Amino acid sequence: MQIDGSTTLVGVFGHPIAHTASPAMHNAAFAALEMNWAYLAFNVDPANLRSALHGARDMVLRGVNLTIPHKILALDIVDEVDADARKLGAVNTVSIENGKLRGFNTDGYGIAKAIREEFNFGFKGKRVLVLGAGGAGRAIAVKAALDGALRVYVANRTASKVEPIVAEIAKTKSECRPVNLAVDALAAVVPDVDLMINATSVGLKEGETLGLPASLFTPQLFVYDTIYRPAETKLLKTAADAGARTANGLSMLLHQGIKSFELWTGCKAPLAVMRRALRTAVYGEKPA
Ligand code: ATR
After folding, report:
1. Which residues pair with 109 in a beta bridge?
2. Same domain, yes or no, for 128 and 240?
3. Is residue 39's pLDDT more than 80?
4. Which terminus of the chain is more solvent-facing, meaning fewer CB atoms within 10 Å of its CB: N or C?
5. What is the pLDDT of residues 236-245, one digit of tens each?
6. For 73, how many CA atoms within 13 A lie in the half-sphere containing its CB?
C-alpha cells in the first residue's frame, strides 16, 4: 500500500479496538482493486464520539464504521439516519459526503446474507429465536421481521430492552414474542424455532457460556453465533454435538464489511479477497 497526498481515508471507531479485523479486510480489498484508499482503526472514547465524527468530516475522511460501544450513540450525532438504520436502532456505517454525516446499518444486510450463505435460506417464513437485545440483537431481530420471518422470539437478560424491539416488529407482519433467558423458558419455545441466533456477548471469553444444555438442540435446528472468536463457542459446540447445523459470526462480519465498502466506494467489493483476509487476520490461516 502506498499512502500519499491523495489517499482516501476510511476507518473504524471503537473502544476497545485493538482486535478489529476490519482493517485487514478492507485494505486487502483496496490493494486488490488497486485503489488509493486506506482503512485505519481509531480507539475513540464514547465521550468523544461526537468530536471524533466531526473531526472525520472536517479531515474529509470518506466514511467510518462504528463498533462497540458507538452504534446506538451515533443515531443522535449523524446529520441523517437512513430509514433502515432507524428501524434497526443502530448505525454501524457512516458515509461522509459533502460535509454531511449519513448513518447506515449494514449489520442487518450482513446477518441476512450470512444466514443465506451458511444455511441456504432467508428469514422469510422462518421462526427465529434471537438471544440478546443489545445493538446486535435488536438489529438482527428487526431485520428478520423486515425480511418476513413468521415469528421472532427475543430472549434477553434485561427484559426491558426487548420492549422497543416488540414495538418495532409490531409495525411489520411478523409476530414478536419476548422470552425469558432461562433454560426452561427457552426449552418451551425451541420446538417452535427453526433458527437460533446468539447476539449476546456471552462466549467471547473462552469458556463463558449461557449454560444451554444439549437437550435444547435437535438436528432440525440451525444455530448461528454472531461471535467468531473463538471460532467455536460453547453454544456452537453443544449445538453441533447434538446434531444441529451451526455457523459462526465471521460471515456476518464479512458481509457487513462488503456492504460498507460498496457504500463508500461505489465499487463492487472483492468478496473472495476480503473473506481470505479476514480468515488470515482472525484465525491465522495462511494467505492463498
Ligand atoms: P452489541 O452491540 O454487541 O449487541 P451490547 O449492546 O452491549 O453489545 O449488548 C450485549 C448483549 O449481551 C445484551 O443483550 C446483554 O444483555 P443485557 O441487555 O441484559 O445486558 C447480553 N449479555 C452480556 N453479558 C451477559 C450475560 N452474562 N448473560 C446474559 N446476557 C448477557
Report:
1. none
2. yes
3. yes
4. C
5. 999 999 999 9
6. 18
243 belongs to a structural domain: yes
Q: Is any atom of ligand 1 closer than 6 Å to the C-beta of 200?
A: yes
CA 7 to ligand 1 center in whole angstroms: 38
Decide if 260 is inside a domain. Answer: yes
Tell me how far apart the alpha carbons of residues 265 and 16 are, in angstroms, rounded to a whole number.
26
User: Are both 54 and 166 inside the same structural domain?
Assistant: no
> Do residues 94 and 63 lie in contact, with contact meaning Cβ atoms separated by under 8 Å?
yes
Under 8 Å CB-to-CB from 108, ≥6 apart: which residues? Answer: 84, 88, 139, 140, 142, 143, 146
* 158 CA closest ligand 1 atom index: 19
In this prediction the pTM is 0.96
Q: Is the pLDDT assigned to residue 1 strictly greater than 80?
A: no
Q: Quick check: 124 and 111 in contact, CB under 8 A?
A: no
d(C-alpha 9, C-alpha 159), whole Å: 40
Q: Which residue carries 432461562 as its cell?
A: 182
pLDDT reported for residue 41? 98
Q: How far is CA 46 from the centre of its chain?
A: 19
Distance CA 87, CA 80 (A): 13
